[in-house]
Amino acid sequence: MESLPKNKKIVLFDGVCNLCDSAVQFIIKHDKKDIFRFVALQSELGISICKHLGISFSKMDSIIFYEPGTAYFYKSSAIIEIGKNFGGLWKLIPIFRIVPIFISDRIYDYVAKNRYNWYGKKESCMIPTPELKSKFL
């Protein structure tokens, strides 16, 4: 994926999910080093990245964290990997790896399954403000 910015980490998210939108806003607020860029899974680029990574459509209901040329993570692993990049006390987030992945992913799946009922759904992907436009691909 040569069109992706160099030295940036990509967060793919459900662009119509209110919970996901809140998560993106949280990441932007804590991204002091300006290392994250965001792509809606439903977008042409989001679909293209998933195809490039060989991610099946069934996994596209999850947040996906992609470090170009290195690795990608989804579900609870993505959350931990994203948090590691914030600094401060967030550096301790890998301690949650003591919870077996099948348990943390099961919790993640439960929230993901109910996210539209609990938090709602937008009619279309959010449009970033002019100040935030550079954060979205």
Summarize the structure in words.
With 137 residues, the protein is α+β, with helices and mostly antiparallel strands. The protein contains four helices and four strands; from the N terminus they run E-H-E-H-E-E-H-H. The chain has helices at residues 18-30, 44-53, 76-84, 101-119; strands at residues 9-13, 36-40, 64-67, 71-74. It has a four-stranded mixed sheet with strand order 2-1-3-4, sandwiched between helices. Strand 1, helix 1 and strand 2 form a beta-alpha-beta unit. The two termini are 13 Å apart.
Oligomer class? single chain
The shape, in one word, is globular
Percent range for β-strand residues: 5-15%
How would you characterize the largest beta sheet? 4 strands, mixed
Strand order of the largest sheet: 2-1-3-4
Unreliable segments of 5+ consecutive residues? none
Q: How far apart lie the N and C ends?
A: 13 Å
Structural class: alpha+beta
Contiguous helical run count: 4
Q: Strand tally, please?
A: 4
| H and E order | EHEHEEHH
